[in-house]
Amino acid sequence: MQDKKLLQIGEVAKIFHVSMGTLRHYEQEGLLEPEYVDEKTGYRYYGVRQLEVLNTIRYLRVLDLPLSEIAEFLHDRDTQVMEEKLVRQKEIIEKKRQELDIIAGKIDHRLEQLRDAVSSELDQIKMVCTPKCRIAWMKDSLKPESYLDLETAIRRLQKGQKEPLAFLGKVGVGISEEKLKKDDFQSYDLVFLRLDEEDIYEGKTEIFPEQKCVSIRFCGGHNAAPQYYRKLLEYIRERGLKIAGFSREITLIDYGMTNDTDKFVTEIRIPVV
């Protein structure tokens, strides 16, 4: 052993900045067999050959190659094998990069929406321009008292999706143009999901053009909405405007983000011409 200049597992762990548990795990996975194991003490010793193997393992782990792939290479070392694995790994990394770009985009949109909601001017009617957007929607007569009452409709919108949809602050309800003109806003006619550009939705969607809307934000949920519909409809009539589509009502901040009901924010928008 002295002639071979073997190193104990603790020494190897320090040299390579890994834990002894990691070295034992590599051994269990068949990647790194010790040069010598003391039968009496169970101590493991490593030589130059193991250090070279460990260097290879560390290099391939930096490239995020899984241990199973590394094991295959170590048992069949060849330049062509290495090239094939690196090419495949690059393809995997590129796919992950694209997925991370999508996640980053979702985070940016959510931060923008959250900051906008937190800084809302409440109980003030405004004329706003709703940008072009893509939505998935379905007709559904309902009268939600809280966001929990929307769960069934949300599940229907999500049915058949290959990927989970992040819907916080993006699910809304609407009242038809016909009912709005009759001052009938005690129940809703449809449920919609506002989709960001990077959202993948398997199903029918529609692109709604840029629209001018009258808008109001208030503290509370859907159960508090009727009084604000009255204010919006009065505002529309006083200014000689005409309703040009269904309302879009979204709870921007609710139990999905806070337990403090004083921080709840709901917005109603009614398209007008």
From TrEMBL:
Name this protein carries in UniProt: MerR family transcriptional regulator
Coiled coil location: none
PROSITE patterns (UniProt xref): HTH_MERR_2
Keyword annotations from UniProtKB, A to Z: DNA-binding, Repressor, Transcription, Transcription regulation
SUPFAM superfamilies: Probable bacterial effector-binding domain, Putative DNA-binding domain
Lineage, broadest ranks: Bacteria, Bacillati, Bacillota, Clostridia, Lachnospirales
SMART domains: AraC_E_bind, HTH_MERR
Pfam family, one: MerR_1
Source organism, top-level taxon: Bacteria
Cited PANTHER family: MERR-FAMILY TRANSCRIPTIONAL REGULATOR, REDOX-CYCLING DRUG-SENSING TRANSCRIPTIONAL ACTIVATOR SOXR
Record's signal peptide: none
Annotated organism of origin: Blautia intestinihominis
Residue stretches making up the HTH merR-type domain: 6-76
